[in-house]
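dude i think i finally got it to work??
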Amino acid sequence: MIWMLILLIFTTTPVSGTELIFEMADRSGDDYGMGSLVYPTHDAFAPYRDLFDLTSFTVSIDGEYLLFDLSFSQITNPWKAPEGFFHQHILVFINTGNGTGVKRYDPLGFELNQPYDYVVRIAPWSLSNLRDYEGNIQAQLIVETIDPQTIRAYIPLENLHVPKRSWQYAVLVGSYDAFGRDLFREVLVKNTEWEFGGGGSWPFVDILAPSFGKVRQQEQLKSGVFYFQNHRGDTNPYHLCLLWLILVLLLFALGGCFFYRKRGFPFNLSLKFKRREHTTKGSITRWN
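look at this
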């Protein structure tokens, strides 16, 4: 039965009409900026957590569009924006590897670790667009919520270079504010009814980043240099589940051996091999 399950996991692949080219999960519960960010106090920001907590970012090709799917712990729409969300305001930078572009994003004054060729703004009230590195709008975008936790942006392929798996992405999440700089809500030292508290130089609540290491979220926000993420979409989730299943079974087996040995049941895991011995009566074969 176990071998049948393993075979099923290896041979079963999800049926989809889209081509996945990038996928990365982000740590849940890290919508705290550099570590101490707190939400504004107005009722519109209830439950005062999770609204800007990015949990995954996926890029795929479907027909005439490049699709960006961004999942959050929670999405609300207190002012009934037509896209199905109001709070989230996202910048997605694309590095195509063509050797063009710039590192500095002038509207907010920060830099990326590599040049970007395109930047996608995802915001409510029909403000979503695709721009090149010089700030020229290439296309206005369709954006919608496809489920209670996922925002999807449709980027026309005709306005892009041909997408490749080698493309890299930097994803920065803040709060939409019609009166804010570059349409982002400010982060102050102390929160108010409409501004975040906790301090910092950048209006970002969460970013797509590793949970540990020198380029984790807190370090990027402190330095003001934001990092592109490499492709991580080749891992089959079914195979990952299989690895966890094998690990759990091994742990149970080792735990069982240890338990029974402590109970006084000896285990001898050595293998027996044939060996030949020469005696006064000739050559004979024995088992170890």
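Residues 1-15, 233-240 have pLDDT under 50 and may be disordered.
im so relieved honestly
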